[in-house]
């Protein structure tokens, strides 16, 4: 396998997993993941998991705001971090009521503010027709 192909696979794997990279010292860190990464546009749910780490390395606190151009995020797009710095919510896309769900993918952006600092992370979900595109 050529080095450029391997690099591409590593980058795509990091994007698919919602990896936001390493945290520079003194900066907050936010990660987001989704299970599954492929959902049907008839309302199949993906579970979104956000994990926040404060600048001092302790679990994050407060709320995370979520945004997507199509579909619905449970709770209106705001989730509260637990004592462990983790929050869970659901994402669904209904093609019958949201034409944006006709896209082949959707990017979900998570933003967490702690004090005067912000951390952001993204995850991409693949949207598929429930009939397999037929």
In short:
11% of the residues lie in helices and 43% in strands. With 134 residues, it is mainly β.
Tag the structure with descriptive keywords:
disordered N terminus; mainly beta; 1 helix; 9 strands; 134 residues; 43% strand; five-stranded mixed β-sheet
Description:
The chain is elongated, with a radius of gyration of 16 Å. It has 134 residues and is mainly beta. The chain has one helix at 3-17, and strands at 29-35, 38-40, 46-53, 63-68, 72-73, 78-80, 86-92, 105-114, 117-128. The longest helix has 15 residues, at 3-17. Strands 2-9-8-4-6 form a five-stranded mixed β-sheet, covered by helices on one side. A four-stranded antiparallel β-sheet has the order 1-3-7-5, with no helix packed on it. It is 11% helix and 43% strand.
Question: Low-confidence parts lasting 5 or more residues at pLDDT below 50?
Answer: 1-17
Q: Roughly how much helix do the residues carry, as a percent range?
A: 10-25%
Largest sheet: 5 strands, mixed
Percentage of residues in DSSP E strands? 35-45%
Number of strands: 9
The helix count comes to 1
- The average pLDDT is 85
**What is the element string, with H for helices and E for strands?**
HEEEEEEEEE
- How far apart lie the N and C ends? 35 Å
Describe the strand arrangement of the main beta sheet, using strand numbers. Answer: 2-9-8-4-6
Oligomer state of the chains in this structure: single chain
Question: Outline, from the CA principal axes?
Answer: elongated
> How does the helix and strand content classify structurally?
mainly beta
Rg to the nearest angstrom? 16 Å
